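Table S2 (continued). Query chain:
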Amino acid sequence: MIIPGRHRCVLFDLDGTIAETEGRAHLPAFNHAFREAGLPWHWRREDYRRLLKTAGGVERLFRFAQENGEDAEALRERLLQVHRAKNRHVAQIMQSGAVPARAGFRALVMTLALNNIAWGVVTTTSRANWEALWTYSLAPLVIPEPAVIVCGEDVSAKKPDPEAYELALVRLGLSALRCCAIEDSRNGMLAARQAGLPVAIVKSEFFADELFDEAQVVVDELTELMPELMGA
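Corresponding output:
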């Protein structure tokens, strides 16, 4: 899928793709924030799996409130406070070392670098979550910094809208033909494909059973992508 000399950047999704952050950090952090806010909510894994079909933590909170008969708009400020608290808890969980990069991530980034291929991050999660993962899980791996970082605050529409990928391409000054994406969800795949990028899927904890009919390759682990990406 990646041909050295033709492709110049590999764009990674974050949650579930670079690290299994959803179950290890976001879900417990949400539940912690609910308790702090005095909300009688508790998300089980099956609840969270369903809610992840909606991109964005704030959007999931509003969806859950509406599903439970709440006036989400009336709760807006409280829900925004819950989301901010959730992000703080995510950072604390990551600081504890509970969220390592997925197997093969470092080797893949270093192999790309050896072939003069950059890497970037295209996520619609919060920038605070990216910064926590970078600080506590990725920077200690001693890898090159990403050439581009697009987070949820940078766009008006989240995946499956292609805006995040389109913005990354503009910032890189590259066409879609010079890049590819690695995603773990159908929403992410659709966003990248609509932006014109080929997509590799690495299955993750919450999205493994989704339909990935438009992906160029589907694997269980990043370690399996090396020959695919490098044309071996």
